[in-house]
Amino acid sequence: MTKFLKMDSSDHLPVVPSLPNIPKWKSNRMKVPHLGRRNISVSNLPSPLVYLRKPPKPLRLFWNKIRRSSLLLTIYLVVYIGYLSVGALVLSYIETPSEINSRIIFRKMIQEFKERNPSISEDDLEQLIVNVVLAGARGVPVTRNATGDSNWNFGQAFFFAGTVVTTIGYGHVTPSTEAGKMFTMIYGIVGIPMTLIFFTSLVDRLMVPTTALLHYLARRLRRHNHFRVQCIHLTISFLTLLGFFFCLPAAIFNYLEDGWGYLDSLYYCFISLTTVGLGDYIPGDSPYQQYRSLYKILTTSELWFKVLKKKTSHY
């Protein structure tokens, strides 16, 4: 201890030895170990007060996240409304002239009928037209050469049940009695979940050949990257969907349905596959269709395959 402290006899206080001479650095930079080769300036080091700050509160973080998601939702909503507005403007521009022309033609036909039959009053003719339109909306044919088959025979009812459980709902034939409406609601509540379960089970089995095709392409095209293999697989799947569920059924409906062009048949296939179900084109709905009940059952099976393919494409 005497080597480091010297006791002064006058005040008996310890004498602190002088510190060794510290060399003056030519700059204020110093090397910090274990931080790589870069020199970090001492003046640029963060203040110790930074580490004493409180972290942001969870409520503030939640509010910032909600604010950001709300902004993105607002932007998406504006874009979506704009998309709907553009569609409305385009359809209005395309379809309005045709509607005006159709109105002129039908008014001219009514006027010619009045001139040929002056004994019929205008009110009676108007009431007759309303009744005919209502009958057509319910799927009841009123023409003289129409077949006498009921719209609720087994084939037609089977087709209607298929449109209910697959949520297509063309709306061309609907129940008119209270008991029929009540049964349709109960039938849909039970049938729609059953259809979804059935489609899910079938999709799991249909994914086996799709996955096998992907593995086959990956083995055969090992020199290519995985993204290119997936693009080839997607192209093959898309062409298969386009051929077997659009082009081929459209050709069949074009051959079987009177008055349907190929574009009309392709339009019907798209409306059915997407489960939109506008109801303007219905296969087998013509009263002159031969074997109408059997044709309706086969058409229902085709609808099921289309909806099943739509569910498969989601995986």
Tell me what the structure shows:
- The protein is mainly α.
- Helix content is 62%, strand content 3%.
- It has helices spanning 58-116, 122-137, 154-165, 178-220, 226-256, 262-273, 292-312; strands at 6-7, 14-15, 29-30, 40-41.
- The strands form 2 sheets. A two-stranded antiparallel ribbon has the order 1-2. It has a two-stranded antiparallel sheet with strand order 3-4.
- Strand 1 (6-7) and strand 2 (14-15) form a beta hairpin.
- The radius of gyration is 39 Å and the shape is extended.
- Residues 1-11 and 24-38 have low confidence and may be disordered.
Protein topology:
Blueprint: E1 6-7, E2 14-15, E3 29-30, E4 40-41, H1 58-116, H2 122-137, H3 154-165, H4 178-220, H5 226-256, H6 262-273, H7 292-312
